Amino acid sequence: SDKKKSEPSADDAAVPARTTSVPARRAHFQASQSHDAWAVLGDICAPTLVVHALDDEICPAENARLLVTAIPDAVLHLLDDGKHVYYAGGVEAKEAVLSFLRRHPIRERS
Q1: How far, in Å, CA of 71 to CA of 84, rounded?
Q2: Which of 4, 36, 72, 76 counts the most CB atoms within 10 A of its CB?
Q3: Percent of the chain at pLDDT above 70?
């Protein structure tokens, strides 16, 4: 065939490509292990939506519940599907975010 190996096929279109390198993923993991913002979560004054998948195998949904209790007036939306990748929640995730943004439009600073 004339197709190059690097060209995506129709079969590849259904599977999102991983765009993050292995060193970047390792660095992200290391940073997340040492990052602790718990003490300042109560200072957040912006409308906050916490979106989390119930079937996340990396970070349990209980962590999202803890965030919502620590951030004033935060709203929790638990996805039935999506695992650890936000956009994998598909339509449900998109609708949750759009609905939240409609209820909390950006206000101009005075």
Answers
A1: 21
A2: 76
A3: 78
Listed in sequence order, the residues at least 6 apart from 87 whose beta carbon sits closer than 8 Å to its beta carbon are 16, 93
From the centroid of its chain, how far is CA 59?
Answer: 11
- Residue 82, classified by CB atoms within 10 Å of its CB into exposed (0-12), middle (13-18) or buried (19+), is buried
What are the φ/ψ torsions at residue 49 (nearest 5 degrees)? -110, 125
Tokens of 83: 């695992």
Place of tokens 């939306």: 77
* 91 DSSP assignment: H
For 64, counting Cβ atoms within 10 Å of its Cβ (0-12 exposed, 13-18 middle, 19+ buried), the class is buried
Closest CA to 82 of 110, 107, 57: 57
Q: With a cut of 60, say whether residue 10 has pLDDT above it.
A: no
What's the rounded Cα separation, in Å, for the pair 55 and 98? 22
